[in-house]
Amino acid sequence: MAKLIVECGEEGFDVSPLEQYAAADIDSDAPLAAELVFCGGEDIRALNAKERGKDAVTDVLSFPNLDGILGRPIRRADFPFDADEEGNLFLGSVVICRERAAEQAAEYGHSLRRELYYLAVHGLCHLLGYDHEGEADKAAMRAREERVLADMGIGRDAE
After folding, report:
1. What is each CA distance from 159 to 56, 115, 116, 142, in whole angstroms?
2. What is the DSSP pairing of strand 32-39 with strand 89-97?
3. What percentage of the chain reaches a pLDDT higher than 70?
C-alpha cells in the first residue's frame, strides 16, 4: 500500500480523502507525491493550448511524471532522479478548472464537491498511468474512479 501526499494550496479543499484512498492499492516502496492546482477558465485554456495544442477550456489536465507504472510495482530504484528531498516519488501535477467543474456539476446534477473530487481522482488516475483512449482502457479507468470515489464516500448525490 502506497502512501500518497497531495500538495494543494486551495483553501477549503480537503486532500485527506485523496491521500487515504487514491493510491491505497498501489505497490510502492516509497511515498508518492502529487500536486493539485485549481485555476480559472482562461488559465486552463492557455495551458491546454500550450501543452496539447487545443485552444479550449477543459475541466482537468494531468501531467504525469513517471512512465510505465500502470499495474506495476513502483520502486524508487527505478526512478532515482524523481525523488524529492524527503524521498517521495513525484507522480506529477493535476490542474482543475473550477469554472468548468461548476458547469459540469450543474449539467450532471450533482454537487460541486463531487465534481471536484471526481476530477481530482480522474487526474490522479492519469498520473498512475491510466488513460481512456481505447474502450477497455476507458472501462478500467472508470471502474477505478468509481471505486476510489465510493471508498471516499462520495457518490453522485454527494454534497
Report:
1. 29, 10, 11, 21
2. parallel
3. 97
Q: Is 126 annotated as a binding residue?
A: yes
Alpha helices in the chain (DSSP H): 16-21, 41-52, 98-108, 112-127, 135-152
Residues of the chain with pLDDT under 70: 157-159
Cβ distance 135 to 33 under 8 Å?
Answer: no
Question: At a CB cut-off of 8 Å and minimum separation 6, what does 145 contact?
Answer: 118, 121, 122, 125
Q: What span, in angstroms and rounded, lies between the C-alpha atoms of 105 and 50?
A: 26
Amino acid found at 159:
E
What is the rounded distance in angstroms from the CA atom of residue 102 to the CA atom of residue 118? Answer: 12
Are 159 and 113 a contacting pair, CB within 8 Å?
yes
* 132 assigned ligand-binding residue: yes
* Helix %, strand %, coil % of the chain (to 5): 40, 20, 40
110 is in an annotated binding site: no
Q: Which amino acid is present at 9?
A: G
pTM strictly above 0.85: yes
Integer CA distances (angstroms), 119 to 8, 29, 58, 82, in order: 14, 27, 11, 24
